[in-house]
Amino acid sequence: MRYKILLLPLLIFCFDLANGQDIHFTQFYNTPLTVSPALTGIFNGDQRYIGVYRGQWYSANSPFSTFYGMFDQKIYNRKLGNSFLAAGGALGYDRAGDSKLSLFNLSLNGSYTYAIDRENFLTGGLMLGVAQRSFKYDNLLWDNQWDGDRADPNLSPNEGFDDSGYIFADIGIGVNYRGQKLASRSTLDIGASLSHLNKPNQSFADSEVSRLEPRLSTYIIQNLQISNRFDVYWNGLAQFQNNYLEGVGGLGGRLHLDQRRGRELAVQLGMAFRFNAIGDAAIAAAELHYQYWRFGLSYDINVSGLKIATNRNGGPEVTVRYIVHFVKPIPVFRICPII
After folding, report:
1. pLDDT digit of tens for each residue in the chain (339 aa)?
2. What is the reported pTM?
3. According to the 3-state scheme, what is the secondary structure of the chain?
């Protein structure tokens, strides 16, 4: 019991030491606006809607719950030729533990895509965001409330915070290369992004400063058509923040069961692995593609030292994507080369 009481102050200390906590997704390839603002508008269609839910560490009695909604849209202008602009935004909420440590954030993205030709594109993106981080300490127990034999919530914790929440601004940039084959389903995205360029303060104490260090994210997402009905894919994401590293790599296959227009149906199965300084989680993933809908499901199986507390349970992640295609006049249609 005493170790549980000491755990929360330790977690808060580690939270401050790590200069903050960034939300991450296993299906990063299905949550592009959280990876890089340069992926805004990089899809086949005109409007894209994405929803995602992630749960984690329920069996360790310190669950994380994350919800995110994203939207982006191409903006056509004949003066840009085959290049185009795009805009979008994301709304997210994350909560963890008995302290209800939460993050609510809103971000707006903009991007410009330059068409080298009809199979190669370069994109630059900018993200401007605002976020609120907060926690509740009504249900918390501290080391000063240990009387030597048991936890006594009636004892004074002798802990004080100037604020239980704060609001901060956030800025990010990114660049992306898209390669594609017009005669096939093969695509390739390679890029990098920098988040938290303004190093926002993350301290709950007015007298202290704890900066959220910039995070560098590099990624590759590729789909390769092997035959008329079968594709293979592989992807990787590496994120560097101060002295910390997190990486995810995965591969799988996609079978197109029906390719008739208006009845498109495909299923996808894959596996991945997440690592930091040591191994973190093995991942199983599946997707269903139907017309302009995409449904993704993945599950993390914890393989790190935390598996003793989690019983190897990591957590599920569910994504839903829908893309809208507008009917455009021929002059406008010609400036929409992304497939």
Report:
1. 333 333 334 333 333 433 445 778 999 999 999 999 999 999 999 999 999 999 876 655 667 889 999 999 999 888 888 899 999 999 999 987 667 788 999 999 999 999 999 899 999 999 999 999 887 776 676 776 676 677 766 666 666 665 678 899 999 999 999 999 988 999 999 999 999 999 998 887 777 888 999 999 999 999 999 999 999 999 999 999 988 899 999 999 999 999 998 899 999 999 999 988 777 899 999 999 999 999 999 999 888 655 545 555 668 999 999 999 987 665 555 555 676
2. 0.84
3. CHHHHHHHHHHHHHHHHCCCCCCCCCCHHHCHHHHCHHHCCCCCCCEEEEEEEEEECHHHCCCEEEEEEEEEEEECCHHHCCCEEEEEEEEEEEEECCCCEEEEEEEEEEEEEEEEECCEEEEEEEEEEEEEEECCCCCCCCHHHECCCCECCCCCCCCCCCCCEEEEEEEEEEEEEEEECCCCCCEEEEEEEEECCCCCECCCCCCCCCECCCEEEEEEEEEEECCCCEEEEEEEEEEEECCEEEEEEEEEEEEEEECCCCCCEEEEEEEEEEECCCEEEEEEEEEEEECCEEEEEEEEEECCCCHHHHCCEEEEEEEEEEEECCCCCHHHHCCCCCC
